[in-house]
Amino acid sequence: MTQAVMGKQGSAFVSELEGKHLHPLWDRYQRITPVQPQAPDVPFIWRWRDVEPMLHRSVAEVSINDVERRALIMAHPAFGSETTTTSTLLAAFTVLDPGERARPHRHTGAAIRFATRAEGAVTIVDGRRCEMKAGDLIVTPPMVWHGHINESDQRIIWFDAANMPLIRAFDAHFFEPGDPRNNEFWQVDAGEERLWTEAGLRAQGVEASPAHSPKYRYPGEATRRLIAAAPIGADGLRVVRYVNPATGGAVMPTLDCYAARLDKGTATRRKRATYNMVCLVVAGEGRSSIGEATFEWSQHDVFTIPHWTWARHEARGGHADLFMVTDKSAFERLDLVREEME
Ligand SMILES: [Fe+2]
Fold first, then answer.
1. What is the mean pLDDT of the segment spanning 58-81?
2. How far is the CA of 111 from the centre of ligand 1 (A)?
3. Phi–psi pair at 98, nearest 5 degrees
4. Which three-class secondary structure state does DSSP give residue 206?
5. pLDDT at 65
6. pLDDT tens digits, one per residue of 216-243
7. Residue 254 CB-density burial (10 A; 0-12 exposed, 13-18 middle, 19+ buried)
8. What distance in angstroms lies between residue 164's CA and the mean position of ligand 1's atoms?
9. How many angstroms separate the alpha carbon of residue 179 from the centre of ligand 1?
10. What is the CATH number assigned to the segment(s) 45-341?
11. Over the Cα atoms of the chain, what is R_g?
12. C-alpha separations of 292 from 23, 35, 268, 286, 288 in Å
C-alpha cells in the first residue's frame, strides 16, 4: 500500500472513529506524550513600583468588611482570565489598614505569607497567634482555619502565595467561610506553636500530623542567621529550605519554600527544573536571565520561573536575598522532579 493511499484511508477512518468518540493513539501520539514539558507561560516580572500604588488605591476602593481578602494577585497574561501566576501557583500582595481584620476561613489550597512590610500584623493559624515580623514566613496548611489582623498603627503589606491553580486542576478545592463576628477566634496566644519554636529540640509525647508541618511560623531572624552561615551550593546559591521539623521534608505536601542568597559578584549556573517557582526579592538588587527574558530586579519585585525553563541569577552592588515558593514537594510526591544544570 502506498503512503498516499494509507493517508487517505487513514484520515477517513480517523473521522469515522471521532464520530464514535474514539481517538486513535497513533494519530494523537505527540500531543499525548510530549517529548518534554512546554510551559504555556513565559517568565514574567511584576515590579514593586507598579504594584505598590495599586495596593494603596485598593484600600480606598474596597472595605475589608466587603471582601474575603484585600489582595492583588499577579495574573500572568498567558492564562487569560484564569487568575494564575504560574501553571500551578498564585502570588499576591495583601494590604491591611490599622485595626482591620481579614475574616477567618479555611480551604484545601495550601498557602503561605511572607512578611515584607507587616510589622504589627498577626495571622491566627489553627488557634495560634503568629506574629509577622520582617522576613517571617507563616504557613497555612490545607483545611486549617486562618485569619489576619493589623494590630499596628500603620498600613501593612505582605506577600502571599498559594496553590489553588494546582488544586483546581484536580478539581479538589473546598472552601469554608468562618464567622466574621466570632471574637473568640482572635483571642488566642501562641498556643501549641511553642512546641515547635526551639530548633533541635522536640517535646516528648507530642504527636504531629504527617500531612504538613506542625510549625506554622518561621521567624525571619532565624532564616537570616542560617542563610549567612549556609555554604554556597553547586549552582552558586546559598539556599535554606523551610522544613517540617517532624520529618525534615517540605513544609506542606504541595507547597515548598526556600530562602536563597546571591553573593556579591557571583552568578549562578543555569538551571532548569520540572517544578514552578515564584521569586520575591527580599533584599538587594540583581539580574536574572530566565528563558529568553532578562530582568533587572530590586526589593519586593516578584518574578516567575516557569517549569522547565533555564534560569540564571546574579546580584548587583552587594548580596541579594530571594524568597522562592515552589510546587517542588508536589512533584516529589508524584516522582516527577527532574533538574538540570549547565
Ligand atoms: Fe486563605
1. 94
2. 7
3. -50, 135
4. coil
5. 87
6. 999 999 999 999 999 999 999 999 999 9
7. buried
8. 10
9. 14
10. 2.60.120.10
11. 23
12. 36, 20, 17, 17, 11
